[in-house]
Specification:
138 residues, alpha/beta, 2 domains, 4-stranded mixed β-sheet, 22% helix, 34% strand
């Protein structure tokens, strides 16, 4: 499926321009002033279009403190503010100090509507767990 976002106000160099953004297979393929056919068209109506932002320090409180916020509510708020990716801190209940807790957190985060990653906590007694996280990523 392809998408065209037309009439986008962009910053190019030091000036504002109006362009069309063509997206196919989830990737920007072309930014142009030409008319392009697409499966779906969205009119930006000369509003600014900017890249999504990454919030590298969030506390989404899940697991353990969901009454404050969880991955679904936190990610919805992030998306509303232009955040497309977040990195969640490990100070939850229980803290993310073991591979087991990291895996549980990954499962909980599937309800997020934006991309995500996690910080792994370091404590005086979890050096082996930190090593295991590196081994898992390879």
């Amino acid at each position: 499926m392809s998408l065209l976002i037309k009439n986008c106000r962009l910053i190019s160099g030091e000036k504002e321009v109006i362009r069309n953004i063509f997206i196919s297979d989830g990737k920007i393929k072309k930014i142009t002033d030409k008319k392009i056919r697409a499966d779906k068209v969205y009119d930006a109506k000369n509003n600014f279009v900017i890249p999504g932002m990454i919030d590298s320090h969030v506390h989404f409180r899940e697991p353990g403190l969901e009454y404050k916020e969880d991955f679904y509510t936190g990610s919805r708020a992030a998306a509303a503010g232009g955040i497309t990716t977040f990195l969640d801190m490990p100070n939850t209940l229980p803290p993310t100090l073991t591979v087991k807790y990291l895996e549980e957190k990954r499962l909980l985060a599937r309800k997020s509507i934006v991309n995500y990653g996690f910080y792994f906590g370091a404590a005086v007694d979890n050096a082996e767990e930190i090593q295991r996280t590196f081994q898992q990523e390879r």
